[in-house]
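2024-03-11 09:14:02 DEBUG pipeline.ingest accepted 1 chain
2024-03-11 09:14:02 DEBUG pipeline.ingest length=543
2024-03-11 09:14:03 DEBUG pipeline.predict start
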Amino acid sequence: MASFNVLLLTLILASLVGAAPPHIVLIVADDLGWNDVSFHGSMQIPTPNIDQLAYSGIILNNYYVSPICTPTRSALLTGRHPIHTGMQHSVIAGDQPYGLPLTETIMPQFFQQLGYRRHAVGKWHLGFFAVEYLPTFRGFESHFGYWLGCEDYFDHTSECNLDQWGLDFHRDVHQLDNYTGLYSTELFTAEAVSIVQKHNQSEPLFLYLPYQAVHSGNLDAFPLQAPSKYVDRFPHIENKKRRVYAAMVSALDDGVGQVVQALRERGMLENSIIVFTTDNGGPANGFDGNAASNYPLRGLKATLWEGGVRGVGFINSPLLQKTGYISEQMMHVTDWLPTLFHAAGGNSSKLKHLDGVDSWEMLSTNGNAVRSEMLHNIDPIRKQGGLRVGDYKLLTGEVGVSWDGWYPPWQLTHDDVFMHVDNFTQFQDPKRIHHRDAAEKHGQDVALKYRRSESLGYVRVNCGPRPANASTNCQPKQSPCLFHIPSDPCEYNNIADDHQDIVIKLLTRLQEYSYTMVPPGNKPFDQNGNPKLHDGAWVPWIP
């Protein structure tokens, strides 16, 4: 009876002073492709736990991220575009002595101002050459995971430049060497569940959960890795690489389900906000040794085509006024900081120098769009630029022309060879179609078995037939290309010649952005960071 009276008093006080700040769980999937979740219509990979959150929340169908890891993570945590933080070119690799500038205030520091407990589990990839750049020196109370961009899922070593190899697994600043043989996706899930189970519910929780999944492991070893219990779920996928990739996605999906279940069992779910996002498009067709799929979107990770920057994303929370719908409003990864800060009870208008915009009310009510344009990137080293204004997208320079195709998911045993053919004529061979359709039918049956909600149906991208000249009508290194994304989401038709006025307008806007850009912060490799100088481990090496 006493405990009941305490609970009743707590509820009464909450009603008098306002609702308690929500718990916030921010889940980041690494390199997850557009076509790798079943709520997007994947007939190969059922993702029931992710689907349940997406269908009962708000599916973001016009949501964009940066084309590669470090830039997106910097944008997510700062609310600032990578061109304004020096993170716009490539990623931080191994012994490069730089990181997200310490002058940038990041999400856990903002939430600390609102009284949140703040924990990070998983990938960091924002610099570790000096201890001040580590998560626990930048607002997080704890961090369990790794600091570089990729590593082996089981032995937790990371390679760099092929001649540098070392252990990269840490709790806070301490090296961990007793987790060999344990799968990182399961380790990160267990850690996140433990944080939820131990959390003092009188305080709001901010849990940042950037999984390793489904990024490739070390390329010189086994890039795609999963325990056999997950691989065995996908006998219908004949191609071994795609089958293991599907297993990696399935482990991720199980992990999401376990974290949600922990929130439910603690009574925290009803006052929680769960955000799910990928960091960039999937590395399809063997890129980075991977087997992701963004089909039918064009391109892949590290490109400015839609397959590189259009992200899998949703938000789920009972605190939203309206849920169970597909948001078509434009949203960018920089928007999460002001949006979640608002939802947590902060005044987002007091956040200065952000590129992100507060989208909480828009999402909560399915209201009018709050942004009309977004910068995909300006990279002065690669000499590329990409911009979306309204319905139109401009691409110029080296935006990823070597990987500008439309890559169906690998199915048959040798698709990892055949799919490199530019026109994919083999994909249309009748014998291959028969086997492919049979496998997809099996996958569809499995996906339907696990789906929790069919009220919205699959959220597919419909592009129509591909024109014969689609792969040649855009040469962005020669002249800018223009696409009307709502009617041409697969970027088949370059319409620049017929709309030179729009091209000029968007080029002018791109130039205006360039005037605000800071130089890329990338630094040359420093051999003093080589793990062989530090007992075989990646550690901060500059005092």
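2024-03-11 09:14:41 DEBUG pipeline.report The two ends are 57 Å apart (CA to CA).
2024-03-11 09:14:41 DEBUG pipeline.predict end
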